[in-house]
Specification:
Blueprint (H helix, E strand, L loop, with lengths): L2 E5 L4 H12 L4 E5 L5 H10 L7 E4 L2 E4 L1 H11 L11 H31 L6 H24 L8 H16 L7 H12 L1 H10 L15
Parallel strand pairs: 1-2
Antiparallel strand pairs: 1-3, 3-4
The chain binds glutathione (GSH).
């Protein structure tokens, strides 16, 4: 039976689960969320502890949380892209970076986005500044890390976390000129076929970006 992924083409965390599926050519069906498919939303509300997506279904197995979905795919549906490094020490580093991208890049960009969702005309300036300051701090940390370390050249847990978070973070707060390694990483990630596919499939939804999508990427 084919895998089913509940999510939305414009959702950053859905991308995080789509990238490994695309990179390994794993067969799956996207169960898109939206008003047209109320049953899909009901499923997510029932099976995710916070009603969030993505949610992966593999026969009788339901997996929630994008990182856990990648770990699950690495174990049960392995492919050419070794999503989790085989070397346990490198796997620790991959998991550390996954947390950094989720907790300090994705979370801070979402803080700004949510301020606009709450009140598009008058978003809370304190929330916007706190989110943007968090992004600048995370960017600087990542730039220093990239200066001292190498990332694996293939699609891994790190690229699955980094690609969507850097894609949208740069729309909220541009990666500054003093972070050239991070800007280059973002460009490299966006050029990966699995990521480019997510970007293209999400284009029709750009008008939904609460801050207004920039005319690039
Ligand atoms: N920690 C979750 C976060 C998932 C998440 O925040 N998903 C967003 C879409 S990108 C969502 O479900 N938003 C709708 C909501 O919060 O109700 C994960 O890693 O999968």
């Amino acid at each position: 039976m084919s895998l089913e992924l509940y999510g939305h083409p414009f959702s950053s965390y859905t991308w995080k689960a789509l990238i490994p599926l695309y990179a390994n050519g794993t067969a799956f069906e996207l169960r898109e969320l939206g008003r047209e498919f109320p049953g899909h939303s009901e499923f997510v509300q029932k099976h995710h502890p916070a009603g969030k997506f993505p949610v992966l279904v593999d026969g009788g197995q339901i997996v929630v949380e994008a990182t856990a979905i990648i770990e699950y795919l690495a174990v049960h549906h392995p492919g050419e892209a070794p999503l989790i490094p085989v070397d346990p020490a490198k796997a620790v580093t991959a998991r550390m970076l996954d947390r950094v991208f989720d907790n300090y890049v994705m979370a801070n960009l979402n803080r700004v986005v949510v301020a606009y969702i709450v009140d598009r005309e008058h978003p809370d300036p304190a929330e916007i500044e706190a989110g943007k300051a968090g992004l600048r701090r995370a960017f600087a940390w990542l730039e220093a890390w990239l200066d001292a370390n190498m990332l694996p050249p293939h699609v891994s847990l790190v690229s699955c976390a980094a690609a969507p978070s850097l894609f949208y973070a740069d729309w909220v707060e541009r990666i500054p000129e003093d972070c050239p390694r991070l800007a280059a990483l973002r460009a490299d990630l966006l050029a990966l076929p699995a990521v480019a596919r997510c970007i293209d499939d999400a284009r029709p939804y750009r008008k939904l970006f609460p801050l207004g999508a920039p005319d690039r990427d």
